[in-house]
Amino acid sequence: MRLPLTGLALALIAGCSGLRPYPAESASKNLTIRMNASKVRAELDVHSVDPQCRAPYIGTVKLDKPTVAVGIPPDAWSYLKFDFASSSLLRGSQRMTKATLLRARAGHRYEVDVKYRDDIYDVVIRELSPRGAMREVPLLDLASCAKQTIIGL
Q1: Residue 143 gets which letter from DSSP?
Q2: In Å, how far are 74, 79, 135, 150 from 46, measured between CA atoms?
Q3: What is the C-alpha to C-alpha distance for residues 140 and 23, in angstroms, rounded to an integer?
Q4: Which of 20, 85, 87, 92 holds its CA 20 to 30 A away from the CA of 2?
Q5: CA distances, 88 to each of 36, 84, 97, 121 (Å)
Q6: Which residues in 1-140 belong to E strands, given as ranges?
Q7: Over the stretch 42-92, which tens digit does the pLDDT of each residue have?
Q8: How many CB atoms lie within 10 A of CB 151?
Q9: Does this model's pTM top 0.85?
């Protein structure tokens, strides 16, 4: 089967984009993301975090539905990077990123509310314990990995 040149070019570009789907079977679906940002394209890049605070990329989840459930490994640090892109005739293209370190605890569930309103992006993470208690999880940047003993160094 012969691909037209444009098809071949698109296939090459897609293969070189560097994005790979986050493995769906990686863990139980302990992270639920609720989107309230219909005019925005959004993705979640998931990274593992090693003891040297490096964050190798694992994969990307497209946030193209009102609710998306994924599994992140329990009892390990993950670096979650929410990427938002929007464009309009008046403002042109805009990109925004919100990221955090998160250590999912076994048996706990995590709810993420992603909101976009008036050019403001917001990400709020809540942890729900097996007993029903809920707490908001602060967003931690990757640099805080080296400043704290969060990895168990």
Answers
A1: H
A2: 14, 6, 22, 18
A3: 24
A4: 20
A5: 18, 14, 18, 16
A6: 31-36, 41-48, 57-62, 67-70, 76-88, 92-104, 109-117, 120-128, 134-137
A7: 899 999 999 889 999 999 999 989 999 999 999 989 999 999 887 666 666
A8: 16
A9: no
